[in-house]
Amino acid sequence: MNQPTAIQHTKPMRRHWHQCLPLLLLEAGLLLTWSSGLIGARLSIDYAPALLVALWRSVVICLLLLPFVYRPLLKTPFRVLLRYAGIGLLAMAGYLTGLTQGITLGVPVGLAALCADLLPLGMALLAAAFLGERLVRQVWLGLIVGLIGVIWVTHDALVLGDAPLWAYSLPVAGMLSLAIATLWQKRANTSPSMGLLPNLWLQCFVSIFAFAAIEVSQGSLMPVPSAGFALSVVWTGLSTLLGYGLYWICLRRSSATRVASVLYLSPPITFLWAWAMFGEPLSWHIAIGMVISSVGIWLVVRAEARKADLGSV
Questions:
Q1: Which of 242, 235, 107, 102 is nearest to 177 (CA)?
Q2: Residue 120 lies in domain
Q3: 240-252: per-residue pLDDT in tens?
Q4: Which of 79, 171, 209, 257 could be a cystine partner for 112, CB 3.0 to 4.6 Å?
Q5: Could you read off the pLDDT of 6-29 as tens digits, one per residue?
Q6: 225 is a domain residue
Q7: Domain total in the chain
Q8: Angle CA(87)–CA(308)–CA(116) in degrees, nearest 5?
Q9: Are 166 and 118 spatial neighbours (Cβ–Cβ below 8 Å)?
Q10: pTM for the whole thing?
Q11: CA 119 to CA 269: how far, in whole Å?
Q12: Class of residue 236 by CB neighbours under 10 A (exposed 0-12, middle 13-18, buried 19+)
């Protein structure tokens, strides 16, 4: 008699929601939410220091996410927790502290924002210098063209302030902090990693202590009892969850250079936010700068796609 053959059913791998969405749609969401963080900072300046808002934003996020993440966090090896805690300190605390403290010391906002927008070039230089990565000429050209578009959009706000000379290094340090975190996160994606929500929770959690250590030296850690402060915390909390969440998702789907270059469109998108919320005027030079940055991003995306095609052959 023939023995019955056992039929093995293979369970299909579960796909996350973001794996079903086009990368361009995710990048559009990244631009919208990342630029909204700057609007949140604009909302908060009349009510509290930026780092106090960032502190309580992180506290609220940690409290809301804890019921959903504590089990996977308990199952995560300690060395993996340390790795993502370090990434969070650089990406959130280091980046925001460098920008806000520079502005506090007198660095003009426009100049500090331009330093932040140097992220794609800073990341490319770090990758080339320390990781031995080689970018083709078209990628370098795209990064430079994209930066020209950013400067075109923001040139009216580029003035020198009366800050001490060393203070101008703080926004650059903040940008480099996010650049290092991005490269570190990209490499961490190839090793045992955490889910998105536990990752965001841990990064917000470690940032609480960094923000508190800085803010306690400058004033009280108590929240400001006002509707404006509460709105600022809610707005920046949402922009943090969505902005950083989509940033890490896009980083998992594409190269670090492409993800960072997409943020070249953040300044003109921020101007659109400001026009919609505060009635600030728009101008043709903003539209022209947006077109220039888009050309730069297109050059980077095209070069990255060509590199991927050659690598798959």
A1: 102
A2: 22-135+161-254
A3: 999 999 999 999 8
A4: 171
A5: 444 444 445 565 667 888 999 999
A6: yes
A7: 1
A8: 35
A9: no
A10: 0.86
A11: 17
A12: buried
